[in-house]
Amino acid sequence: MADVLELRQYTLHPGRREDLIELFDRELVETQDAVGAHVLGQFRDLDAEDRFVWLRGFTDMAARREALAAFYGGPVWAAHRDKANDTMIDSDDVLLLRPVTDFDLSGRTRGGDTTLVTVTLYHLPAGGEDAFLSFFASSVQPLLSDTGAPPLAVLRTLRVENTFPALPIREDANVVAWVGGFAGPDALAEHVRLLGRETRWTHDTLPALTSRLSRPPEQLHLSPTSRSLIR
Questions:
Q1: Where are the domains of the chain?
Q2: Which residue stretches does the UniProt record annotate as biased composition, category Polar residues (predicted)?
Q3: CA triplet 185, 187, 190: central angle to 5 degrees?
Q4: pTM for the full predicted model
């Protein structure tokens, strides 16, 4: 089980996303898993054609340091880094997170039917995380589940020293994130429709949620690649 997660959003040169995905899925999945840097999901951002998003997990921060040193100092990355880096404009938009709820992907296999994955990021003022998570669990999550979107995972910012500074992480972020899975765009649209008809949501929960945020939430709409565990 991964207790340390990276949500990595890469901005790529125009037209280069499929090049990176082909290389990534062929060469950079099992080779990271083998050293303890577990590739949990890799995605096309449906709202930005030159954005690649992926999620990587580690058992703890010590394992993260060792795994990243082994991979980025090893022969696989040396063989493929130039081709990978050639596709990228920016790879530093990285959130370091930890699970609030169990996020167990054991037993899943790579591949299968393509679905739609959403990641909703709630940006919070400093010190507001615990109260927000209590509110989310009691008021938001039941409504999400009732309208067809039970969270696959709930995550929060992990505030620790970056023990592998060669890979920056965002120090400015303070977020709670929920990861959702849908059969496709129609299922997401139906969830939004049902949620919008819930008076508990429109009259009470949404205003209360908004009041707790430091800025409007972000939602990523993601299409898993053929070898993503999260689907």
A1: 4-104+113-224
A2: 222-231
A3: 110
A4: 0.94
Euclidean distance between the first and the last CA atom of the chain, given in angstroms as a whole number: 18
pLDDT tens digits, one per residue of 101-148: 777 666 566 776 668 999 999 999 998 899 999 999 999 999 999 999
Average pLDDT on 181-197 reads: 95
Dist. CA 38–CA 223, nearest whole Å: 19
